[in-house]
Structure formats: structure tokens, C-alpha cells
Amino acid sequence: MSNVKLETPAQYVKGVGPRIAKLLKKLEVETVEDLLYFFPRDYEDRTQIRPIARLQPSDNAIIRAEVASINHQITRNRFSILKVILSDPSGSIQAVWFNQPYLLKLFRRGMKLIVSGKIEYSTYEHSLQLTVKDFEVDMGDALGIVPHYPLTEGLYPKTIRSIIKTVLDKYLDDLKDHLPDNIRQEQQYPKLAEAVRTLHFPKSLNEIEPARQRLAFDDFFWFQLELGQRRKNNQKAVGIPLKIEPDKVAKAINALPFVLTGAQKQVMEEIEHDLQAQHPMNRLLQGDVGSGKTVIAVLAALIAINNGYQTAIMAPTEILAQQHFDKIIKLTKGLKIKVKLLTGTQQKKERTKIIDKWDLVIGTHALIEEQVSFRNLGLVIIDEQHRFGVMQRMGLVKKGANPHVLVMSATPIPRTLALMLYGDLDRSVIDEMPPGRTPIKTHFITQTKRKSAYNFIREKIKEGRQVFVVCPLVEQSEALDLKACEDEAVFLQKEVFPEYKVGLIHGRMSGKEKDAIMQAFLGNKINLLVSTTVIEVGIDVSNATIMLIEHAERFGLSQLHQLRGRVGRGSEQSYCFLVGNPKTPEAKGRIKAMLDTIDGFKIAEADLRLRGPGDVLGLRQSGLPSFRVADIIKDEKILQAARIAAFNLIEMEPEIARNIWECQR
Ligand code: ADP
Ligand code: MG
């Protein structure tokens, strides 16, 4: 939306100046355009002003009245109570402000106010009383529907309202509506300028929603147009059409220690189709934890390698990269494929020279580093995509000439979010678990049950099973958390399971140390592994059937789900114990969701409801814009309409789509 006038710094708007500009900046408002789109958080309907005589208890009411008398009291514990008698021609009422002693300086007898709040009957005073929620000095200018803007200390409602009025009068005409008329009319939306004005100063309450919807539609439409355009550009790009030799693929599949599930076969077909095409594949592979995505990655890699191209697989942690490496070495045994592991702990020199001669390179984000270059990168696979930002994905993709891209994610994203985040990708879903899995049993236990949980665990270890104990670790209190985790390991070894081997793993260890411990755990030389969330993604030890999560209330819901996914990977019955003391409704909600379902999609929906989209998946780094008006949960229908409209336009009117896309950028 590059219009020079709209980029005018807010400071130069009449009535703003340096002081208020600073305050606005705190609200992330820096330009005229920001002001135009700085919408009220709610509205007050002053057409509903009532005579004092008609007020009833338990009403929320607005009155317009004069200050008749002022009385300030300070309680023994230094609490300020300001009681003001307000009167209008019909009667009078006592209004109360708590803890705002500075208002004493503002109020004077005879001053006219507009006050809203709750009407209650005070048994103590034997009369009605108004507990003030909001008030304003009545200048006679703010009647009708009055917008309430987000505020910050020092910025007054009246000030911001008058600034917005100025901006609307002076700049609204510069706001160009790039949404094609026919799309607008189809949705029966108002024009952009009209919608913006209405959302600031509606004439009646029922004008607000259509205006809001129009602007929410815009938020979605422009983003979807961007995704659609990206997708289109990708389709025009010259890729690397690969040949598929069915015999070779079949041979690789037959060599697997299991039969592919129907879902895996289906997904494989979709990928094969893409790999043969003239333009690069851009596909998201979704599948719940344990659904078997790794083998799909390997099969896709084999196709590229058979065609003489290199494949890179990027994983978010060293442990996971190492694990992929070990598995892939096994799966590709006898295939004469050169597989290499590349992580940040290796010497730089080694990292630079190795890359050329290998067919398949598995690594962490070390793969993106500048000195790493490929001979002919044909396929890029990103595992646990949600751990990487768009930039990191692109960083690896750029190391080839339009390579095929497969991103894999175990984070089951609700449909709405998937459309938002991955609208430029084709999507495949593994919606079926490998056979023979027994659903994990999840229990919530309080401290008092801890002992019996330990006894249960002891029995299982006796049977040969292995155990994860997970402790929380957050950045803010990393040192403390790490200590707690170490203490826990010592305690479990010495006091609880002296007859078994307890191990410890955390992110602060070197790659070598972590690797040694994971190998020992894989070989069942460690019976119980105390860990931070470094084991959260991808770790696959099918003999581990019990997970105990300490302070479960401190983990996010998707994180709990990912952690739980570390067990239940074989045919043995697996168990997940959540230990904790959830206090907030949200924390309780997370635990409840974990007990209610093991379905990743339901978990994701619950997560979205509990936390809102901003936090789910760390969306900010995933490249999701923050919308001005739209709410991805509430406005799902609008999102769908906007998506259809944007993609249709690209399909039917590519020229127009391209033009308005460029205007809007
Ligand atoms: P994720 O999708 O979480 O990455 P993995 O690829 O790690 O899952 O697979 C989980 C486990 O299931 C692995 O031990 C893998 O070998 C096994 N597996 C994958 N596909 C099948 C299948 N079709 N039948 C049986 N086991 C399978
Ligand atoms: Mg995986």
C-alpha cells in the first residue's frame, strides 16, 4: 500500500506532535496509515444515555450529569475512594472511583461529565450508587456512538478521538481500494473508505459488523493473494523433472522391515507425481507423531538420488538429525548411497569440503550456513517444519536451482491455520497410524500418587521396558531448571531406582555427549532417562513405553502432545503420567485436553482455543502476518471466502491479480 501521503509520520498530523507521537509509538502507531487502521477496541452507545431517575440496580448505564459535590476518603490501608454526587434534571446519584486520587484535581463543581458504569444498591448508604468504569468530560461533541481506542498512560480518549477525526478528514481519500469491485459486491461489503470511517465512527451499532467484516476480508484476501501468487510463480519456475523407475522404488519398499500403510502409499503417489513434474514440488506432509513420515522422506530421497541429484534433510535438533542418520543408514544399507551427517558441532573445515561427494546430507540448520554448498541439490526435505521459520526454509532451498521441496510436520494444524500458513503449498496427510499400535493411556497424578507411579514404573522396568522422565526448562529460568533436572536424576537414581540405571540428557550437553546417551538408551543400557524437552521432537525408541512429565502445567499443549508421542511407538501398551498442580483455568484446560484425547488434530484445536493463534506454533516466526482486524478463529468463514476469491482471481484474471497484488505490496 505504498502511498507516500499515508506514510507521513503520525507526528505531523495536526494535534499530535512529538509527545503524543511517542505515546502512539507505544501502541505501534507510527504513520498516518497506522492511524487510519488504528481501530477502536469497543464502542459506547451514548444514544442510550439515561435520566438518573430511571436507573435500576445491576444495570450497566451511561449518564450525562453535573458534578454536584466531591468527597475524597482515604481508608486506613491507604486506599483512595472518590465519591462524587452527580445530578441531572431528573435526580442525582453517587458515583464512586476507586484508587484514582489524581481525579480530585480534575473535578470541579458544576463540571459536566459523561459517566458509564455499573449501578448497584448500596445497603450501607441506602441508595443507588454508580461504580465508574469509564468517564469523560462532556464537551458536547462526543455523543452518538463513541469509540473507545486502546490507550496508554498519558493518552486520553478525547485526544485520540480527535486525532482520528483529523486523519479521516484529511487522508481517507488517499486510501485506495484495490479490492476489485465485483468481489466486493459479491460479498456485499462497503467500500474501503466507508468501512474504515464506519469502524471508527459508526452511526449505529449495527453498521459496525459489516464494516469489520469487510476489513477482515481484506486482511485475508491480500495474504491469500500473496500465497496464490507465490504458488503460481512456483508453477512457472523450471524445476527438475525426475524419472521414476518403478522397479527401484519397489525394491526399496520391499526392503523395508514393514509394509507401508495405505496412507503412506497414497502420500508416496502424490510425491512421485510432483517429482516428475516440470515445476518444483512444494509439498507439506502432515502426519501425527509416529505416523511414519521418515520413511517417506527416505523414499523421496532415493528417487532424487537415483536421478543423480543430491538430497538434503534438515532437522531441528542434533539428536534428531543423528537419529535420522542412523535410521537412514540402516534403511539404505546395500544401496551404495553416500549418506553424511552435518551438524553445528563439527569442524567448519570438514563442513565445507564434504558436501560435494555425498548423495544424501542430513543435518541441522548448520546446512544453511554460507560455506555449505551443494553439487546439484535436487530435493530439500525439512523435518518438523514448525521449528523453522520461512527464512530458514528458503535458506536451504536457495542452495539449489529450484529444487523440489518437501516439508514435514507432526504438528497437526487446524484447517484454518493450515490455509493461512501453507496456502502456497500442496498438502498431503498421513491420517493413519501403522498397525498394531495400542493407544497410550494417560493419567494425571498429584504428588500423593507419586509413590505408586514409581512402583508401577519399577514393575515395567522389570519387564524390560524403558522410561522417560521429562522436566520443564524455560529460557527465563534456565539455570534453575537445569539444576532441578539434574537433581531429579540424582534423586531417582539414589533414592528411587538404585537397582536400575538412570541417565540424564539436556540441551546444554555437547553433541557427542548427547549422542552417547541416546545410543545407550537405544541399546537399553539406560532404563530411565531424565530429560528436558530436547527429546520433544522426533525421538523414536519403541521400547520406551512410559513417560512421566513433571510440572506438566508448565508445558504448552502441543508440547505435551509431542512429548507423549515419544511413547506408544510399538505394540506394547504405553503410559503417560502427567504430574503437576495446574492452577489457572488454561493450565487445567491443557491437562484435561491431554486426558480427553490422543488425537493430534483435536489437541491442536484445543490449543488454538486455549491460547489463540498468536502463540500456537510460534506463528510469528512462521511468517504469518499480524492482521489488523481479522481473527483467524472467529472469522474462519471469511477466510475461506477470501481464499476462494483470491485464488479464483489468479486463475481467471491473472493480469488483474498480478496488478493489484503489486499495488498492494
Ligand atoms: P513420525 O511421523 O513421527 O516422524 P516415524 O517416521 O519416526 O514417525 O515413524 C514412527 C515409527 O513407526 C518408526 O519406528 C517407524 O520405523 C515405524 N513405521 C513407519 N511406518 C511404518 C509402517 N508402515 N508399519 C509399521 N511401522 C512403521
Ligand atoms: Mg519424525
What does this structure look like?
- The chain is of the alpha/beta class.
- Among the domains are: 1-48 and 161-170, no CATH class; 50-142, Nucleic acid-binding proteins (OB fold (Dihydrolipoamide Acetyltransferase, E2P)); 246-276 and 292-409, P-loop containing nucleotide triphosphate hydrolases (Rossmann fold), CATH 3.40.50; 441-597, P-loop containing nucleotide triphosphate hydrolases (Rossmann fold), CATH 3.40.50.300.
- Helices cover 39% and strands 19% of the residues.
- The strands form four sheets. The chain has a seven-stranded parallel β-sheet with strand order 10-11-9-12-13-8-14, sandwiched between helices. Strands 15-20-19-16-18-17 form a six-stranded parallel β-sheet, with helices on both faces. Strands 2-3-4-6-5 form a five-stranded mixed β-barrel.
- Helix 13 links the parallel strand 12 and strand 13 (404-409).
- The chain is globular and about 95 Å long.
- Mean pLDDT is 88; it is low at 616-622.
Distinctive features:
binds magnesium ion, seven-stranded parallel β-sheet, 19% strand, single chain, alpha/beta, OB fold (Dihydrolipoamide Acetyltransferase, E2P), 23 helices, 665 residues, binds adenosine-5'-diphosphate
Terminus-to-terminus distance: 6 Å
Read across the widest sheet, the strand sequence of neighbours is 10-11-9-12-13-8-14
CATH class of the domain at 441-597: Alpha Beta
Number of strands: 20
Largest sheet: 7 strands, parallel
Quick one: overall form? Answer: globular
Radius of gyration using CA atoms only: 31 Å
Number of helices: 23
CATH topology of the domain at 441-597: Rossmann fold
Mean of the pLDDT scores?
88
CATH superfamily of the domain at 441-597: P-loop containing nucleotide triphosphate hydrolases
Structure ligands: adenosine-5'-diphosphate, magnesium ion
Which structural category do the helix and sheet elements fall into?
A: alpha/beta
Give unreliable regions as ranges. 616-622
Instruction: Please state roughly what percent of the residues sit in beta strands, choosing from under 5%, 5-15%, 15-25%, 25-35%, 35-45% or over 45%.
Output: 15-25%
